[in-house]
Amino acid sequence: MNWYIKGLKDYVNFNGRARRKEYWMFTLFNIIISVILSLLESVVGLAPFLTTIYSLFILLPSLAVTVRRLHDTGRSGWWILIGLIPFIGGIVLLVFACLDSELKENRFGPNPKWDENFN
After folding, report:
1. How far is CA 83 from CA 26, 64, 90, 92, in A?
2. Torsion of CA 59, 64, 67, 71, to 10 degrees
3. pTM higher than 0.70, yes or no?
4. How far, in Å, CA of 1 to CA of 81, rounded?
5. DSSP letter assigned to residue 32
6. d(Cα 101, Cα 99) in Å, to the nearest integer?
7. What distance in Å separates the CA atoms of residue 15 and residue 54, rounded to the nearest whole number?
8. Residue 12, SS3?
9. CA distance 103 to 8
């Protein structure tokens, strides 16, 4: 849960790097919350109002953590636009998100995994 809250706090931070753990834990909690809201809406019989509001709320933090994850793999944040290509773009972003971090430091800053483990 700390990774999710960290992602929400850094909602406008498109600089720096995000390790795989930060990205995937943020994504996991996003999915869990979305599923719970969808189930709640279907049980109560509501229109998808709650999930729409949540999706709008989480849009900017999701973009920020994805850009920071791309930075961690040594790519520009502009690579996020490849996700606009149907099917193939999503697969490319998935592969990029799964790749390991670049070593100690790259042009986007120090490796957060290195700082956490060795400082």
Report:
1. 18, 14, 5, 8
2. -160
3. yes
4. 28
5. H
6. 7
7. 24
8. coil
9. 26
CA angle, residues 39, 41, 47, in degrees to nearest 5? 140
CA–CA dist 7, 117 (Å, integer): 20
Which residue, 6, 1, 19, is CA-closest to 61? 6
Cβ neighbours, 10 Å, residue 70: 24
Residue where the block lists tokens 């502009």: 78
Question: pLDDT, tens digit, for every residue of 10-68?
Answer: 888 899 898 899 999 999 999 999 999 999 999 998 888 899 999 999 999 999 999 99
Tell me if 73 sits within 8 A of 96, measured CB to CB: yes
Other beta carbons less than 10 A from residue 103's beta carbon: 10
